[in-house]
Amino acid sequence: MGFKQAFIGFSLVIFLIALGCSSKSGTQSHSLTIAGSTSVQPFAEKLAEIYMAINPKLIINVQGGGSTAGIKACREKAAQIGTSSRELHPDEGDLTKIIIAKDGIAVIVHPQNPVNDISIEQLQGIFSGKIRSWSCLGWVDKPIFFVNREEGSGTRDSFENLVMKKGDISDEALVQDSNGAVREIIANNPQAIGYISFGIVNHQVKALAVNSILPNLTTIKNNRYTLTRPFIFVFPSQPTDLARRFLEFVLSKEGQKILEKEGLVGIL
Amino acid sequence: MKEKIIEKILTLLAFSAIGVLLLITVFIFKEGLPLILKAGIKDFLFSAKWAPTKGHFGILSMIISSLAVTFGSIIMGVPLALACAITLAEFCPPRLLVFLKPTIELLAGIPSVVFGFLGVILLVPVIREYLGGPGLSLLAASIILAIMILPTITSISIDSIQAVPLLYKEGALAMGATHWQAIRLVILPAARSGVVTAIILGMARAIGETMAVIMVAGNALKIPSSILDPVRTLTSTIALEMGYSAGDHRTALFAAGIILFVFIMALNILANLLMRKK
Q1: ipTM > 0.95?
Q2: Which of A90, A101, B14, B194 makes the best surface tag, with the fewest CB within 10 Å?
Q3: What pLDDT, on the 0 to 100 scale, is given for residue B276?
Q4: A149 CA to chain B: closest CA distance, Å?
Q5: Spatial distance between the Cα atoms of B47 and B66, rounded to a whole number of angstroms
């Protein structure tokens, strides 16, 4: 008797699993997955939220994981759209890319830190470990704690290209794995300095002027602020219908306006 | 007949657990070993330069950091846990023990991210303020881990102290020893293998812990020269860089996983051997 009951239970479970699978495949045509850079993620989420409000039947999943993971997910068809906060590497040329917006990399410090301006050379010095005290930047003689991103991050890749040129970032750097985590450290430590996406800067931290130019929408758009980088959507050469329509929305006046409101710099 | 079938099914399930372990082992080694051979075992284990996207795969600083954090937590956690175990097993009224032991075991059920968060909010600012350095440090990670391994060490130690035959204690007391002398000279030596096993299992937990360590250790790649320096453990590196890695970088993380695997296996085998001796 007990055996029979177990069998019935077992088949019930199988049935339910089968049911679950079929209902999932049923909604597949109405869902879109976007994966990639953690810098692009909050903006993609905002766009998705508004696009879903216009198209109530559609479900858009926005995932993080990093630029490289997003490009990989897109190539392996785990996501219809991949996002990247760095230029594509040569071995990623099989995918189509579209620049959806520009972003500045803001150099941030604690609001109590009196330093307001920093040069690219000073940044190089700090991140290579040669400038070790705030007195070199006209403040008190206290050690500088500089916060880096982890190996492989799109923001770090851009920062290395724009600031460090060929030099390496010192291995004494503290390492955090997202823009938010870096901001959290800076917000709690008056002697810390780090770099995050301009759109993520808030009242907890202070963005420095780089070479005397403060990052803002105008200076990033006309490239006068030197630390700017593109935000990219990548997709296979044959994007799905849904992906194409979402891309059209992002590049439309309305989509670009949303991005600018969130702190990015549009391309129109 | 029915009996036989059920028996077979249960055996199969038991073996599937071992099968999963076997598959994980094979997979980690298959993914990671080629990179160790390519980079050279010597360069992999004894170089401190880690820049996998630029072709440097030295994990020495992470091995040192992992061991330093583990020993730090043992130094702080073991005396506390042992004191706790002795008090609960020997001095505590049984009615209170029934309440206190599950409470300590509950500590093991708190998710590690909560420990990490507490560390960042409470511990790190205190260290930065009063001891200097960035606060995110070897010391902070050791303290958090010491708290996390407390329940493991305490509860296994209590069990092994309670497993010492009452006869030993009575004999010691009859010879004129005080209660403390009986504990120190008779009960603890008799429970030694169990206590050492508890410490080793605590070490295995400490070396494998990831989330809490990432949050409080600062994750700098430099080999630490003081307990106030930030450190990056093997587990932190894997978790931090996993999402972004591709190609050789990815296999390098698996290779770091092999080293971690070897450490934890060695600790567990040691613990098992000691347990059997008892």
Answers
A1: no
A2: A90
A3: 78
A4: 10
A5: 15
Which of B244, B248, B251 to mutate to test binding with chain A, by most A CBs within 10 Å of its CB?
Answer: B244
Report pLDDT digits (tens) over B139-162: 999 999 999 999 999 999 999 999
Mutate to test the interface with B, among A85, A159, A174 (most CBs of B within 10 A): A174
Put residue A129 in one of left, alpha, beta given phi > 0 → left and psi -120 to 50 → alpha.
Answer: left
Q: Please name which of B222, B260, B220, B264 lies closest in space to residue B238, comparing C-alpha atoms.
A: B260
pLDDT band with cut points at 50, 70 and 90 for residue A107: very high
State the pLDDT at residue A12. Answer: 52
pLDDT greater than 50 at residue B238: yes
Candidate from B48, B124, B241 with C-beta closest to A152: B241
Asked if the model's pLDDT at residue A21 lies above 50, the reply is no
> Any alpha helices (H) in chain B, and if so which ranges?
2-39, 41-46, 60-86, 94-107, 112-118, 124-131, 138-162, 166-174, 179-182, 188-190, 192-208, 211-217, 234-241, 248-277
List of residues 6+ apart from A207 with CB closer than 8 A: A106, A107, A108, A198, A201, A214, A215
For B220, the closest of A67, A172, A177 (CB atoms) is: A172
Cα separation, B235 vs B214, whole angstroms: 9
Q: Is B260 exposed, middle or buried (0-12, 13-18, 19+ CB in 10 A)?
A: buried
A177 touches chain B (CB under 8 A): yes
